[in-house]
Write a structure and sequence with these properties.
The chain has helices at residues 3-104, 107-125, 139-161, 210-220, 222-229; strands spanning 129-133, 168-171, 194-199, 205-209. It is an alpha+beta fold and 234 residues long.
């Protein structure tokens, strides 16, 4: 083998090695590029997922804040409505008390009412002797109503039960009920009228004052009162 032939073979070997190296370099570069793209895709997907999670949290937080704001607004409106209704009811009660005080100053209307209140109290107690407490200003009209109440009491017992029972009613002239209010907004203790009837030892009490009857109506007939005052909300 001459030098020229040897040089050719050497050159061929060099070219082969260079081609192999180039192919290997291309393969390594392609693999590196593929790995880079895969890692880049993973990183992009990770960032996308993080952004989605952050956005979801922000949306959730906004929904919660909106729900809280809506609930707060509804509660404020409800409290405002309740306060307005309470104010209306207070005004109605005050006007009713004012009307009761007016009734208690009119003997023509007040005495028949006292007769009914006394009769009812006597029927509840069914005692041979009862003590009647009233306002100091009502003593005369109460004393006038007692005989009529006793007569009515006897008539009811005879008609409904077929029995004849007598009752003695005494006005307590030492322990009076509170006087009439000076205004409908009075905060101190007062009595708008009516009577409080007890047995002889005072252990059994029938509170038939106008204020007690009004409180009883408000307590027992609250749904009817609300539906009358606020028909749309009933």
């Amino acid at each position: 083998m001459d030098d020229i032939e040897a040089q050719k073979q050497i050159q061929q070997m060099i070219n082969f090695i260079l081609n192999e190296a180039k192919d290997k370099a291309n393969e390594i570069e392609a693999k590196a590029l593929q790995d880079f793209n895969i890692e880049k895709l993973k990183l992009v997907q990770s960032y996308k997922e993080q952004i989605r999670q952050d956005l979801k949290k922000k949306v959730k937080r906004l929904e919660v804040e909106r729900a809280i704001a809506r609930s707060t607004a509804i509660n404020k409106a409800r409290l405002k409505k309740m306060a307005a209704r309470a104010q209306v009811l207070t005004e109605v009660v005050q006007q009713t008390r004012k009307k009761m005080c007016e009734i208690s100053t009119n003997p023509t209307v007040y005495e028949p009412l006292l007769v009914d209140l006394l009769t009812q109290a006597m029927l509840k107690l069914l005692e041979p002797t009862v003590i009647v407490k009233c306002r100091k200003s009502d003593v005369s009209v109460v004393e006038s109503a007692i005989p009529k109440a006793i007569k009515k009491y006897k008539e009811i017992l005879q008609k409904e039960c077929g029995v004849s029972m007598n009752v003695e009613a005494k006005v307590d002239k030492e322990n009076f009920l509170f006087p009439a209010p000076t205004s409908v907004e009075q905060n101190s203790k007062y009595c708008s009228g009516g009577v409080m009837v007890t047995n002889l030892d005072g252990k059994i009490v029938c509170n038939n004052t106008l204020d007690a009857r009004l409180d009883l109506v408000i307590q027992n007939d609250a749904p009817i009162i609300r539906s009358t005052l606020f028909p749309k909300a009933a």
